[in-house]
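hey so u asked for the seq, here:
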Amino acid sequence: MKHISAFTILLVVLFTFSCSNDDTIAEPLPQEGEPLTSNLRTFFFGHSLISHLEQVNVTPSDETSIPHWMYLMSQEAGYTYQATGQFGFLTSHRDFPPEANMLFDLMPGVWDSDTQTFSDGNFNSIVLTPANFIQSQPATINYANEDYSPVDATIEIFNWVLEQEPGMTIYIYEGWPDMAPFIQSFPPSETELQDFHNYTAGVFHQWWLDYQDEVIRLRPDLDVRMIPAGPILERLLTETQLNQLAVTEIYEDDAPHGRATLYFLSSMVTYMSMYGVETPSSYEAPPIIHPLINENYASIVSIIWEELEEFNHTDGSSRVW
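ran it, structure tokens below
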């Protein structure tokens, strides 16, 4: 019999110990330059903070929608991106199966809900967002005149979706709050706008953290991530050169629906959250996007990435990756 070296025995022991202590392999966090995926097929349970159709300032295509910009930036990076979705709120998204009524001019169709089952869509991710005007009470409190809460509805939707397509990555999208309670009329005064921003980064954001935490507490087996667009946008619009933007170049009403520039910034946060890499450095936003974005593009990317890297649970694990 040949002799086995002590070094070989040590390697075997270490390997056996590591395998026996955990049968699952945790999904790695993003590494510099390496995407978590290069292929996204996403279904949105969304509303007008995801895709805004009834515009005051009409755009040539779908420039006031996040998937529009996700598609264009993905093309620049050489990634595959396909998406559709359903308009509505959590209360209406509980009506299964969903309808693919969120369509986009430039992006080829991904799923025909009239003739195909949801599983035929081969989606690998979903993005869900509650209404932006229900944050006056915790997400665990029932809707008025209903016997279920936003958390209940969320878990019901997740359960249905995962029955149809197991293993999908789940994202909660945090947008920005309703502006109407803070202003007398649109556009807001400087003081009113500051109150709005303070609420976005404070009470409003905490509601979303508590919401995600409660969903995870009830369903710890699910991979529930969050895209914190609202608070990151608040920082960009108040602490960077983008504070030079007039409020009417960002929003167009008190809902507040955004202009193309706001949806572009939101898509940058969404892109980095879902792909796990920075948006392409070579991408240049078209003229419909305010020129301050291209002028400050590198610093905007850095700030978004920094915010996402620090977006963690209390135990230090990432809320987004």
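Confidence is low (pLDDT under 50) at residues 1-27. The chain has one domain: 36-309.
lmk if thats what u needed
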